[in-house]
Amino acid sequence: MAILSKNQVDELFSREAVLLGQADCVPGFRAAHLFGRDAVCHAKKIDGGWNAYGIGDFTLFYLTRKGFQAAASFYNVQQLQEEAELEGAAHEGIA
């Protein structure tokens, strides 16, 4: 997947979101599929970025819009880091 703009992330959130409780959110496993596990772990460190919804014997971890944006940002930085390293920019202090 390419590096994403805010508008693209918002569109992706809208496509992937489900209603849990009173808000739209994206299940953690779906976000991990899109951005990777490290990005989702990063989002869980963001205050208000995640939560869970339980129905007795099953609890679903999910990302809020804020968490989804944080996961996408983490993913973007990973992609840009790879690009910068390929260009040699990271070593020149201009990344």
Summarize the helix and strand pattern as letters: HEEHHEEHH
> Share of helix among residues?
55-70%
Radius of gyration: 15 Å
H/I helix tally: 5
Low-confidence stretches: none
Number of extended strands: 4
Which structural category do the helix and sheet elements fall into? alpha+beta
For the biggest β-sheet, the strand order reads: 1-2-4-3
Instruction: Report how far the terminal alpha carbons are from each other.
Output: 21 Å
Largest β-sheet summary:
4 strands, antiparallel
What shape does the CA trace take? elongated
Brief synopsis:
The chain has 95 residues and is α+β, with helices and mostly antiparallel strands.
Explained architecture:
The chain has helices at residues 6-16, 28-35, 37-44, 65-87, 89-92; strands spanning 18-20, 23-27, 50-54, 59-63. With 95 residues, the chain is an alpha+beta fold. The chain has a four-stranded antiparallel β-sheet with strand order 1-2-4-3. β1 (18-20) and β2 form a beta hairpin. α1 (6-16) packs across α4 (65-87), α2 crosses α3 and α3 (37-44) crosses α4. It is elongated, with a radius of gyration of 15 Å. The two termini are 21 Å apart. The relative contact order is 0.17.
